[in-house]
Write a structure and sequence with these properties.
The protein is α+β, with helices and mostly antiparallel strands and 263 residues long. It has helices at 14-33, 37-40, 51-69, 84-87, 92-97, 107-124, 140-162, 170-187, 224-231, 237-242, and strands spanning 130-133, 136-139, 193-197, 201-205, 219-222, 246-249. The chain has two domains: 14-168, Up-down Bundle (Four Helix Bundle (Hemerythrin (Met), subunit A)), CATH 1.20.120.450; 176-249, Nonspecific Lipid-transfer Protein, Chain A (2-Layer Sandwich), CATH 3.30.1050.40. α3 (51-69) packs antiparallel against α7 (140-162) and α8 (170-187) crosses α9 (224-231).
């Protein structure tokens, strides 16, 4: 494939994605309801956030589907699944502030209410409905897919902060891995490095000689959770190498300069 030719954007089955989001929300909600006050007060490992801040933020992130659905539809789709990982950075502080000031609100009630509304909307919203978001217009199908990323990334944050084992829905995990892998290919376009995250994704990236057959000279391989942590800045590239959590071969295989792709 010529270097100037862009890969076809990956597609996601809307019905499977909706089921995955519903499943992951239920798994995480069950765990959040069981958290004790001392657990909620612990650091989340994300700046100055507590675990309660993290849980409130995740409920807000999922509940933003309802908030967007209540607004007049957008005129056009300005953001897609492929561009979404880069669209949130300019409004990071606005997002961080969205759940603040809700310390008096019962967390279980918040998650119950958000879950009920999510289930209702996933049943009735058409995939091609255009939502008006802070980052621009986006279709329901694409926005729901990005909720899988939010749920998987922050459920993993909860697991790490509290040494929990909240399960990750396989389809939600797959969508998260693929979206972040494709974001790497957008941020560092090229074909000199092959990044493998079995069993969910393989992408080529980084400018340089393009591999066409046989074993690629520059290969990076890691597991899904390590990839998600690298791609979102939870884990540094050098630390992953030192822990043997990622394997990199070839002179161009160092990805420390292009990670994270989303923060």
């Amino acid at each position: 494939m010529p270097p100037s030719r862009k890969p076809k954007p990956r597609s996601y089955d809307p019905a499977r994605t909706r089921a995955a989001v519903r499943s992951q929300y239920a798994l995480t909600a069950e765990a959040v309801r069981k958290l004790a006050p001392e657990q909620l007060a612990r650091p989340a490992g994300l700046g100055d956030w507590t675990v309660r801040d993290l849980a409130a933020h995740l409920a807000w992130a999922v509940g933003s589907l309802a908030a967007a659905a209540a607004r007049p539809p957008a005129e056009r789709a300005e953001v897609t699944v492929q561009t979404w990982p880069f669209a949130t950075a300019p409004i990071r502080e606005q997002i961080a502030d969205a759940h603040r000031g809700k310390d008096a609100e019962d967390l279980s009630a918040l998650w119950d209410r958000t879950g009920e509304r999510l289930s209702e909307l996933l049943e009735v919203l058409p995939d091609d409905r255009l939502l008006t978001l802070w980052i621009g217009g986006m279709t329901v199908a694409d926005f729901v897919t990005t909720r899988a990323v939010e749920l998987v990334v922050h459920t993993d944050d909860l697991n790490r902060a509290l040494s929990l084992e909240i399960p990750l829905d396989r389809q939600a995990l797959a969508a998260c891995v693929r979206i972040l892998a494709d974001a790497l290919a957008v941020k560092a376009p090229g074909g000199s490095v092959e990044v493998r995250i079995p069993p969910f994704a393989v992408v080529q990236c980084v400018e340089g000689p393009r591999h066409t057959r046989g074993t690629p000279p520059n290969v990076v391989e890691t597991d899904p959770l390590t990839w998600i942590r690298l791609a979102t800045g939870r884990l540094a590239w050098d630390a992953a190498l030192d822990a043997a959590a990622v394997r990199a071969s070839g002179e161009r295989a160092g990805l420390g300069g292009v990670l994270p792709v989303m923060s």
